[in-house]
Amino acid sequence: MKRTCMGKTVILLLGLCLTAAQAQADDNPLPQLVTKDGHHALIVDGAPFLILGAQCHNSSAWPAMLPKVWPAIEYLHANTLEIPVYWEQFEPEPGKFDTSVVDTIVQQAREHNVRLVLLWFGTWKNGSSHYIPSWMKSQPDKYPRIIGKEGRRVDTPSPHAPATLAADIHAFSALMRHLKSADTQHTVIMVQVENEPGSWNTVRDYSPEAQKLFTSPVPSELLKAMGTNAPASGGNWSEIFGTNADEYFHAWSVAHFIGQVAAAGKQEYPLPMYVNASLRDPLKPGSANTYESGGATDNVLWIWKVAAPAIDLLAPDIYQGDSARYRKVLELYSQPDNALFVPETGGTTGQARMCFAALGHGAIGWSPFGLDYTKYANQPLGASRLTEESLGQVALNYKMLEPIMREVARLNFEGKLQAVAEEKGELTQTLDFGSWQAVVSYGVSRNGSPKGNSEPIGRALIAKIGENEFLVTGAFCRVDFKAVSGGQRDFLRVEEGGYEKGAWHPLYIWNGDETDWGLDFSSAPQVVRVSLGTY
Ligand code: DGJ
Asked: Is the pTM of this model over 0.85?
C-alpha cells in the first residue's frame, strides 16, 4: 500500500517536473535552423533572427583582450560576436577541462546584450592543427599530420587518425555539455566546428591508412547521393571519380571526421552547427593544389552534405575583393539545402555593402572578420588600423538593420524580401514585386539622372509587407516604385520609424523634399514604411 502511494507520488511529481520542463522549453526554446520552401531561418528565442555579426581576431578570446573587443562590438551595433574557443586552453591536460574562459566570454556577452557564435578551434585551424593542446603536439605519432605525395609530413592534421578523432570528440562533447548547463538562456546561438578545415600543400593524405581507404570501394551513401549518375557500386575512388578522386576522397575524409565531432557534440547539446570554408576561386577555380583541399569548397558541398549530416550549413569565408566573385560565392552557398551564412568577410568601406547582397540571397547572417580594437592589423585582408572611421560603414549597416532585424529575418524566410548592393557601372537596379517594381538608383540628386556613387557603396533592402506596402531601408541610394499596371505611383504615406517587439512605431512622416523625387537614403540609418497608390 505504502509502496503504491509512493509510486503515485513519484509519478505525480515526475509529471509536474515534466510539465514544468516543457513550459520552460516552450518559453526558452533552443536555437535552431529551419527551412521551408527553400528559404531558411535561424530561430532564436522562438523567432527568426538575423546575425549582425563581427568576428574578433584569432588571439582576442583571452579575458585580457576582451576589453578591446566589446567597445568595437558596441560601436558597430553588432548583435552577435563570433569568438574562438581554443582547444589548447580548454583542455590543458588530457581530460581536464577548463571552462573559465568560455564562462567569462558568455558572462560578458550577456552584460553587453550580445549573442555568441563560438568557434571551436579544434583539430583544424586554417588547415593546420596549431590549436591542439601541447600534450597532443608532443605526441606527433599518436596525433599525426598528413603524409604528402612525396612521402614527407605536411603541416595539416590527418583525418584518418583515430586518436585525434577520439580526442576531438571528447573535448568538443565536453564543451557542448558544459554549454548546456551553463547557458540555459542561449547566449550561444550557434557553433562553428573547427576552422577552415582542409589541407594546404597537399591534395590529400598519402599515408598507408589513407592509401588503403583510397583503394577501397567508395562509400555507398556517396554513390546514392549521385542519384541517376551513380556508377555501379564497388569501384574505388580513382575508378569512380577519375581526376577528381584525390580531392573528393580528402573532402569525404575531412567531412566524415568533422561530422562525427559535430554529431557527438549535438548529442550533448544540439545547437545549430556549421563549418566555414576557405574558398577556391568561384569563377576560375584551378586545380585542388591551388586552394585548401578537402574543405567545403563549392565543388564538394554535396560530398560534405552526405559525409557530415550533423553540420547544418556550410559557410563561405569571403575575402574575394571583386564583386563578381563575391556575388558568385553568395549564389553558390545559398541553396535550398544550404542556408547562406557569411561568417567571415572583409569589413572595409567597399565591402560593407555586400551585407545587402548577402541578404538578397536570403542570408541568415553576415559577419566581417577581425573587428576589434586589439592592435593586430589583418592586412591585406582588413583595414590597416581599426578605427571608428574604418568600421563606419559596417556600423551603418547594423544601425539600419538593428530596428528591423527580426522582421528582415522573418520576411526573408517568407521569401518577401529583396536586397541589393551597388555595382560599378550599374546605375539602377529593378526589383520585381509582382504588381510593383522597386527601382534602386545610385548617385542621384533631385530630378537628375543617376550617375553612380564615386565608389560603389550604395545598398538597399525592400520587403513587401502588404499588397501595396513596403518596408525600405538603404544607404547612398534612391528607392522608388513603379506600378506594373501603368498607373502613376503615388506615395500615400511614408513613415520613418522602427519595430519594437514586433510592433511598428512611426517617428514621423516623410513628404515634400523627402519624397518628391523618390526616397533618398544617404549616410543616416533610416527605415521607412511606404503605402503606395496610383492615379
Ligand atoms: C580565415 C580564418 O578562418 C581566420 O581565422 C583568420 O585566420 C582569417 N582567415 C584572416 O587571417
From this structure: yes
